[in-house]
Design brief:
single chain, alpha+beta, D-amino Acid Aminotransferase, Chain A, domain 1, two-stranded antiparallel ribbon, 2 helices, 23% helix
């Protein structure tokens, strides 16, 4: 199953940024009328923190900005189009 994961207690208290406001995980909700939900459009980036620092932050930010500006299909981790 593609959404399998192993629970990690460190994720219970994370904050989720929705339109510039941070929400506790349990309160983070997106409207079913949101275009990202309805149409699947949008850009997101997952960040890994290692020893208190975001790993590869500049690469993440560059890719996020590039994809946002272009409206293009996001790149996969191997640098290919997501199609």
């Amino acid at each position: 199953m593609s959404h399998d994961y192993e629970p990690d207690e460190r994720n219970q208290n994370i904050l989720i940024d929705i339109n510039g406001t941070l929400y506790p995980r349990a309160e983070a909700k997106v409207s079913v009328f949101d275009s990202g939900f309805m149409l699947g459009d949008g850009v997101w980036e997952g960040l890994r923190v290692h020893n208190g620092k975001i790993a590869f932050l500049n690469r993440h930010l560059d890719r996020l900005c590039r994809e946002h500006r272009s409206g293009a299909e996001p790149e996969t981790p191997d640098g290919q189009s997501g199609q």
